[in-house]
Amino acid sequence: MDWHLIIAATIKIVVFVFLTTLPLVAMSVWAERRVSAAIQDRVGPNRVGPFGLFQAVADGIKFLLKEDFTPSHVRKGYFWLAPALVMVPALLTCAVLPFGSQLFGEKMVIADLDVGPLFVFAIASLSVYGIVLAGWASNSKYPFFGGVRSTSQMISYEISLGLSIIPLLMIYGELNLGRIVQFQAENGWALLPLWGEGLSVQGWILAIPVFISFIIFMTSMFAETNRLPFDLPECETELVAGYHTEYSSMKFALFFLGEYAAMIIGSGLAVTLFLGGWSLPFGWLTPESVDAEVPWWHGLIHIGTFFAKVIGLILFFIVVRWTLPRFRYDQLMRLGWVFFFEIALFNVVLTAALLWWFNRAS
Amino acid sequence: MTFLFYIFAALALVGGIGVVVNKNPVTSAFSMIVSFLGLAALFIQLDAYLVGVLQILVYAGAIMVLFLFIIMLLDVQEEEKRRFPLIAALGAAGVAGGITILIVTVLKRSHIGDATIPKLATAEGPGNSDVHRIGELLFSQYWFPVLMVAVLLLVATVGAVVLSKKQLR
Questions:
Q1: What's the maximum distance between 2 C-alpha atoms anywhere in chain B?
Q2: Of A130, A196, A197, B102, which has the most beta carbons under 10 Å away?
Q3: Which of B57, B71, B129 is best to mutate for the A interface (most A CBs within 10 A)?
Q4: For residue range B11-53, what is the model confidence (pLDDT) as tens digits?
Q5: DSSP letter (8 states) at residue B126
Q6: Which residues 147-176 of A have a C-beta within 8 angstroms of B?
Q7: Per residue in B30-46, is it b (16+ CB within 10 Å) or e — as a string?
Q8: Model pTM?
Q9: Closest chain A residue by Cα to residue B44
Q10: Nearest chain B residue (CA) to A113
């Protein structure tokens, strides 16, 4: 047993998951309310603390203190299990995201797996169980419809989500997220090939399939996290509140937090795959290789860069929610199966052809 | 890390027993997912990261969702009330016991435990992970079977679409 490894991993888990991601979840709830208020020309929560920053704390206390009511017609065991099954996968996926380069010689990733993106998809695909169970265990019609809708939606969009990143993986030739970020730090971010080997005709042509991938990936992410314009599982006008209609107090809060945690992890994955992860633009402060020594203040700047990018993407998610109208359910399914699936497949073939052509030419 | 093996093996076994013992189909389906998770953890312990992750992605994440989906749409109550005759239970126990004895005898006579099995991922670094190796093998040595399986799956998909259409025009 290597105690040093275990202690380092524990510190990373506690700091990254519990002291960073969870507060970020609370803050994004606050940001959502403030941004939506700004968009709708309202004030939003501004009473608790400066700019209402402590609203999240007040909300948390309220959720904990309210009566935890379990309706008599529900299937109890599964009713209690469902909120946990939404929250746990969302937090588990944190394990493979590289949130910084190195700090004091320690890699800033909890598990340096060689199957990073696959692991994220595998664990994220488990979160559908929480929603479908909540719908079924509530034993009433609106939650059930919400659960059924959510299942079919998540299954449909998982396919285009998985296919959309294959072109990227073909370009990187790598499934280790840490090395993917290092590659982008040296050769230009996937979406911004402005330095290193990316600054060439080939790099710019390859940016076209990457851009298509990015659009498919982000749209599917919206559907996976059940957010507007794809929030059909909890569409208020048709289903009251969807799968969490029967839930109250902290159990409801867990669904809520799970949704936001999934959004943050989705943003983290998008940042890592498309926007260079923790790396600064133009190759500034880029370490020599994945294992090279990194000064501690470089490490801190890298961590800051990663979270700055993630927060930027979260704000994008929030603005989209308050800008677009909701899709109809058949439109949503058609979009997934008829458009995105085919475009993603075509994109894979296009990238393969381009890579083959470049390899032949050189 | 042997104790991790025992934890996950126990998880897989408990899940497997739960599938058979539970009368509620939803609980059975969930026991199966637990069993798959235990299996995936065992694969990962053997350094077969890709196989472990695929086990979760394909079986727990996709196939079991569809299973659960169908079970929930059916009437669960009727299944819960069903009684099984004693003789069927005895027969099942006999078959299970026989297979266990068979496996144990075969394993005792073989020398699996003595052989040293090479690790899947021998070297760290790019291009040496098990994903790369499996990919290389699939697309060089085994390209023809892969292609055949792909065609077979396509045929099955088309067949399912044809069968589910009520009227063929």
A1: 63
A2: A130
A3: B57
A4: 999 999 888 888 788 888 889 999 999 999 988 888 788 888 8
A5: T
A6: 147-148, 151-152, 154-155, 158, 173-176
A7: bbbbbbbbbbbbbbbee
A8: 0.83
A9: A113
A10: B49
ipTM of the complex: 0.78
- Among B26, B62, B129, the residue with its CB nearest the CB of A175 is B129
Q: Is A231 exposed, middle or buried (0-12, 13-18, 19+ CB in 10 A)?
A: buried
* CB contact A128 to B (< 8 Å): yes
Q: Please name which of B133, B63, B143, B34 lies closest in space to residue A115, comparing C-alpha atoms.
A: B133
Per-residue model confidence as pLDDT tens digits over B144-153: 999 999 999 9
Closest Cα partner for B41 from B15, B2, B11? B11
> Domain coordinates of chain B in residue numbers?
2-84, 123-169
- What's the longest Cα–Cα distance across chain A? 70
Name the residue ranges covered by the structural domains of chain A: 69-361
Q: Residue A122: which of B33, B53, B126 has the nearest Cβ? A: B53
CA distance A96 to chain B (A): 13
Q: What is the pLDDT of residues A266-293, one digit of tens each?
A: 888 888 888 887 888 777 777 777 677 7
B49 in reach of chain A (CB within 8 A): yes
Q: What is the CATH number of domain B2-84?
A: 1.20.120.1200
CB contact under 8 A, B61 and A175: no
